[in-house]
Design brief:
The structure holds two protein chains of two kinds. Chain A folds into three domains: 293 residues, no CATH class; 113 residues, no CATH class; 58 residues, Arc Repressor Mutant, subunit A (Orthogonal Bundle), CATH 1.10.10.410. The longest helix of chain A has 20 residues. By secondary structure, chain A is α+β, with helices and mostly antiparallel strands. An eight-stranded mixed beta sheet of chain A has the order 5-6-9-1-10-11-12-13. In chain A, strands 4-3-14 form a three-stranded antiparallel beta sheet, with no helix packed on it. Chain A has 16 helices and 15 strands. By secondary structure, chain B is an alpha/beta fold. Chain B has a domain of 256 residues: Amidase signature (AS) enzymes, CATH 3.90.1300. In chain B, helix 7 packs antiparallel against helix 15 and helix 9 packs across helix 11. The longest helix of chain B has 24 residues. The radius of gyration of chain B is 21 Å and the shape is globular. In chain B, 56% of the residues are buried. Classes of the chains: A alpha+beta, B alpha/beta.
């Protein structure tokens, strides 16, 4: 549908990601940053902008930003400057937000995403540090707005992409990829529901060959689904306008998660004049080479590297490897299980069976009731032929419900597969001897009856016979 | 006896048990009561001061003193946040504000055992050079012209701080100086006013005017006291990112008046036909005196001096417009109810700020606006760099620079020019020092034909406070300026 709608049109998308820095304290104060605390319980004198208070940079947040920059293959700026972005709002205590304007801490970089047409490089324009504002609560009182300053002063990284994405799918992939890198680095927990990661999406449309269209910015999207839906809606809206002979106004829009529509928030003419200027309370931030080098050396293996290794080491397909590395916890889980086991089997059981159970239960892999060790045990029992794939599925479900180990369940349910050749041979003989007519027909060319013999033998074994051995024996006997 | 009170002399009196802190504090509280007409104090913390003085006397008894100066009462400009004591910045918008925290500088005073008598009047948010912009009314200069009974301005913005020291409503006080706010009132009141190098004294807990220029410092009776007080208040503070990590020196211990072989610069750009003859005369006399005492006088040039004032009146308001945005009626201070948020903002800030503050917020907002930023703010910053390099060059040739502190002596409250730009000219000699981040001191040198004090300014390179104080001490020692105002308010 999207493809159809977009046919004949270019879609140009750029994204600003606001990622909350994983840090115990705020960007310029020592207040804690725990989510969901009692309103105004994590507010220092600085966060409340009391008279005479001064910001002092939290070095850990600098470290996190630089690490993120390294993860985004970006240039680390040895000198950066904090600016004041001035505007009045009830949840902005200072009357300005401390941000970085002309000289951000991280410059140009890129990330690679997987698209229908293979790998694609998406440019990163910059990453800068800034303070979050507080939260306005409009629904607590009929006459007043309440303000919660717990968020006020929390460190955010704003990651600005180049307008390099051309479909909603690419946009989603880009955000997924950045989120995944930050999570691998431990610089942002990526929790979109809690608002730790949100995206502002710039969308424009144009006819191929024509110059770029006017863009609209859709603010504050906090799920992949919304990012996709907002872009689709917005692109359609813009195309319709142009096709009607109207023009697109440059404006900031909000996405209604209920209706799936975007609506105008403010036009370019109403845009604030933020009167940026360097914050005189803070000296320019300078980083020295050795310190940056030290951080570079501390960077863990990132998804692209792990993916390459999985492909080389375990001969995984690019597709499977991509699924496994998309999330740090998944790749760790996979590598725990795959150790000394059949990679193909492990891949199937992690990305197939386990994922489908987790999806059904709406769980993330960190909360999986089946630990990597337990899944390994199950895979071992498939590999040594003790149980069949079909039985294994049953066991996995039971493991998930009861928390018991695979072996325990196999024993309890008497699921263990019959692999003893002599035992199976007597079953097979039994089946062939009781169906002499069919044996005759088969030998006269009715090949399809092979399945019948297998089915009968399996029935006789109550499903426990190793199907491979059953197959082999029947084939052997019938060709005698 | 009273007139000879200094930090230094009081320390000796206390040490020899000639007077107790409580007696001393009571005496100053009485002076304050008798000097109410001068309007020096916004808040008098009588009860707290007496309790603190009693505790100091206890410490002295148990030989557990916080410093040699434990028990000496001082006054604090109403711009320093003081825990549990109203801190107004002389503005209506903060007239009900009681901080629950203590500024680093006043904490340092407390750590040395100094007793606060109360909060001193100043220009609103330290914006002004006459003290007339205070919400609590003008401070009156203790000095009067011999030719007139009219009341004079004490200068500003630390007008209350300077007038209080001059009239013995405290022995020493804390001020702040953004463009001359310590040195100019010191000059108008015959006191010593020291603005330290930018970064020498913590700004934490001081209501901000222009962050890149603000610096706290002492107003005292003598250069020795300035050294003593600077020892108490200065030093690195990790709560202020612009605070210097340069090690703190023992200014008083190392104070000496030896200037032999020093070179003192006289900048030609500070010369003017408009300078009163008596001020010019003092300036010349002081140069001769330094020469006699062994220094070499060198003519120097600070070519961008005349651009300093325009640059200052862009940079300072720009920073102020942003610094004062927090006074919005939402969390503390004055709130005037409105129909909605914007209406509340407008009403609160319209009622809460005085004209001069509004003027500077408007200027600052304008010069930072998109389309004007490069032409004003960026250009002003370039000028600031040029001024800094003027001084860098000058200090390759000289140890210190001598100038008048102000282009005139104190003028009548009623005669304040109606054109604000005329008023801004009061700061013409002091502003470049703030732009360059240098230390400067104003010391009283002589009185003019109307018997009003003339102040001279010394400037040295950054963090050369010791040298600055030494040269000032040399002059002080030589001239032994001992004029005091007639206490007309006691009549």
């Amino acid at each position: 549908m999207v493809a159809q709608m977009i046919e004949g049109w270019n879609l140009v998308i750029g994204i600003e990601i606001h990622a909350q820095v994983s840090s115990k304290s705020k960007l310029f104060s020592s207040s804690p940053t725990d989510f969901g605390s009692k309103p105004n319980s994590q507010v220092s004198l600085i966060d409340a902008a009391m008279p005479g208070m001064l910001p002092v940079i939290n070095k850990f947040c600098i470290e996190q930003a630089v690490k993120s920059g390294i993860g985004l293959n970006a240039k680390i700026n040895k000198k950066s400057i904090f600016d004041r972005k001035n505007y009045f709002y009830q949840d902005l205590p200072q009357g300005y937000q401390i941000s970085q304007y002309k000289d951000p801490i991280v410059g140009e970089g890129f990330v690679e995403i997987e698209t229908e047409n293979g790998q694609k490089k998406i440019g990163v324009e910059r990453l800068h540090l800034e303070q979050d504002a507080g939260k306005s609560l409009h629904d607590q009182d009929p006459n007043f707005t309440f303000v919660d300053l717990n968020r006020s002063g929390i460190a955010l990284m704003e990651i600005v992409s180049k307008p390099d994405m051309n479909s909603p799918e690419e946009a989603v992939e880009y955000v997924r990829k950045v989120r995944s890198i930050l999570r691998y680095l431990g610089t942002c927990d990526g929790n979109m529901e809690q608002g730790s990661l949100r995206a502002d999406v710039n969308v424009s449309v144009n006819k191929p060959g024509n110059e770029l269209g006017t863009r609209c910015e859709i603010k504050n999207l906090n799920s992949f689904k919304f990012i996709h839906a907002a872009i689709v809606y917005e692109a359609k809206r813009q195309i319709k306008l142009i096709e009607q002979g109207d023009s697109v106004n440059q404006e900031t829009r909000l996405f209604n998660t209920q209706s799936g529509e975007t609506r105008s928030m403010r036009s370019k003419e109403d845009a604030h004049d933020y009167r940026y200027f360097p914050d005189p309370d803070l000296l320019p931030l300078t980083l020295d080479d050795d310190w940056i080098k030290g951080l570079q050396d501390s960077i863990p293996e990132l998804p692209d590297q792990i993916k390459e290794r999985l492909i080389n080491e375990y001969s995984l397909s690019s597709y499977d490897a991509n699924i496994i590395v998309s999330d740090k916890a998944t790749s760790e889980y996979f590598e725990d299980v795959v150790n000394n086991r059949n990679p193909k089997l492990v891949t199937t059981w992690v990305t197939g069976e386990l994922f489908s159970i987790l999806n059904k239960k709406n769980l993330i892999i960190e909360d999986s009731p089946i630990t990597s060790k337990k899944l390994g045990e199950l895979v071992d029992n498939i590999e040594n032929g003790k149980i069949s794939n079909r039985q294994a599925k049953e066991v996995l479900e039971e493991m998930c419900e009861s928390g018991k180990g695979a072996l325990e369940i196999i024993d309890e349910k008497g699921l263990s597969q019959i692999s003893d050749e002599k035992e199976i041979e007597s079953l097979v003989d039994n089946v062939l001897n009781s169906n002499p007519e069919n044996v005759k027909k088969y030998k006269n060319g009715k090949d399809k009856l092979f399945g019948f013999f297998v089915g009968e033998a399996m029935k006789l074994s109550k499903g426990k016979a190793n199907p491979k051995i059953v197959n082999d024996l029947i084939k052997k006997k019938l060709s005698q | 006896m009273k007139d000879s009170y200094t930090l230094k002399s009081l320390a000796v009196l206390l040490e020899n048990n000639k007077i107790s802190s409580k007696e001393l504090t009571s005496e100053y509280l009485k002076n304050i009561e008798n000097g109410k007409e001068l309007n020096c104090y916004n808040t008098i913390t009588q009860e707290k001061a007496l309790i603190d003085a009693g505790k100091s006397d206890e410490r002295r008894k148990s030989q557990n003193l916080r410093s040699k100066y434990d028990g000496i009462p001082i006054g604090i400009k109403d711009l320093f946040c003081t825990k549990g004591v109203t801190t107004t910045a002389s503005s209506k918008i903060l007239s009900n504000f009681v901080p629950n925290y203590e500024s680093t500088v006043t904490q340092n005073c407390d750590d040395a055992g100094l007793i606060s008598l109360g909060k001193l009047n100043c220009d609103e948010f330290a914006m002004g050079s006459t003290n007339k912009t205070s919400f609590f009314g003008s401070v009156k200069n203790p000095w009067k012209s011999v030719n007139s009974d009219n009341e004079l301005v004490p200068g500003g913005s630390s007008g209350g701080s300077a007038a209080a020291v001059s009239s013995d409503l405290c022995v020493a006080s804390l001020g702040t100086d953004t463009g001359g706010s310590i040195r100019q009132p010191a000059s108008f009141t015959g006191t010593v006013g020291l603005k330290p190098s930018y970064g020498r004294v913590s700004r934490w807990g001081i209501v901000a005017f222009a962050s890149s220029l603000d610096q706290a410092g002492p107003i005292t009776k003598t250069v020795e006291d300035a050294a003593i007080f600077l020892d108490i208040i200065s030093g690195h503070d990790e709560k202020d990112s612009t605070s210097s990590v340069n090690p703190k020196e023992n200014y008083y211990e190392n104070l000496n008046s030896d200037i032999k072989g020093m070179k003192i610069g006289i900048p030609k750009e500070f010369r003017s036909d408009k300078l009163p003859a008596s001020t010019q005369k003092s300036w010349d006399e002081c140069a001769n005196l330094l020469k006699t005492n062994g220094a070499e006088i060198v003519d120097i040039s600070l070519p961008h001096t005349m651009s300093a004032l325009p640059a200052y009146y862009i940079i300072a308001p720009a920073e102020a417009s942003s610094n004062l945005a927090r006074y919005d009626g939402v969390r503390y201070g004055l709130r005037v109810k409105g129909n909605d948020l914007i209406d509340m903002y407008e009403k609160t800030r319209s009622e809460g700020f005085g004209d001069e503050v509004k003027r500077r917020i408007l200027i600052g907002t304008y010069v930072l606006s998109s389309g004007y930023y490069d032409a004003y703010y960026i250009k002003a910053q370039k000028i600031r760099s040029l001024i800094k390099s003027d001084y860098v060059e000058a200090f390759k040739k000289v140890d210190a620079i001598l100038t008048p502190s102000t282009p005139s002596t104190a003028f009548e409250i009623a005669n304040e020019p109606s054109d604000p730009v005329q008023n801004y000219l009061n700061d013409i000699f002091t502003v470049p020092v703030n732009l360059a981040g240098l230390p400067g001191i104003s010391i009283p040198f002589a009185n003019d034909e109307n018997n009003l004090p003339i102040g001279l300014q010394l400037i040295t390179n950054s963090f050369e406070e010791q040298k600055l104080l030494n040269v000032a001490r040399n002059i002080e020692e030589t001239i032994n300026y001992s004029e005091t105002p007639e206490k007309w308010w006691l009549k």
